[in-house]
Amino acid sequence: MIRMEATRALAAILSVLLALALLAYSPKITESLKAPSLKLTSIDENPQFLWANRGLDLLIQAFVILAAAMAISAQLRKEERVREVEEK
């Protein structure tokens, strides 16, 4: 029971930290974004695009990794609950 409460507390703390990170970086991210041009361009013509939006890319990757870790944790926790019910 204590372990479950600790896990929930950790999840809440991580959620708050992620929200704070998104709020802290959102002005910087939105200011750096530019409207895409309508014509197709290659990376050779516009190589700075890969690095101009790097902060947004890293923030999205961190969110995806955190979401995957939370999903795996939830699935493993669900199996533990089923085992506890079967043992009783």
Task: Describe it.
The protein has 88 residues and is an all-alpha fold. It is 78% helix and 0% strand. The chain is built from three helices and no strands. It has helices at 2-32, 49-52, 54-87. The longest helix is centred in the last third of the chain and has 34 residues, at 54-87. The protein is elongated. The model has no long low-confidence stretch (mean pLDDT 76).
Share of helix among residues?
over 70%
User: What is Rg?
Assistant: 20 Å
Q: Unreliable runs, pLDDT <50, ≥5 residues?
A: none
Oligomer kind: single chain
How much of the polypeptide forms β-strand, as a percent range? under 5%
Averaged pLDDT: 76
Strand tally is 0
Number of helices: 3
Distance between the termini: 16 Å
Order of helices and strands: HHH
Main pleated-sheet profile: none
Structural class: mainly alpha
Described by the principal axes of the CA atoms, the overall outline is: elongated
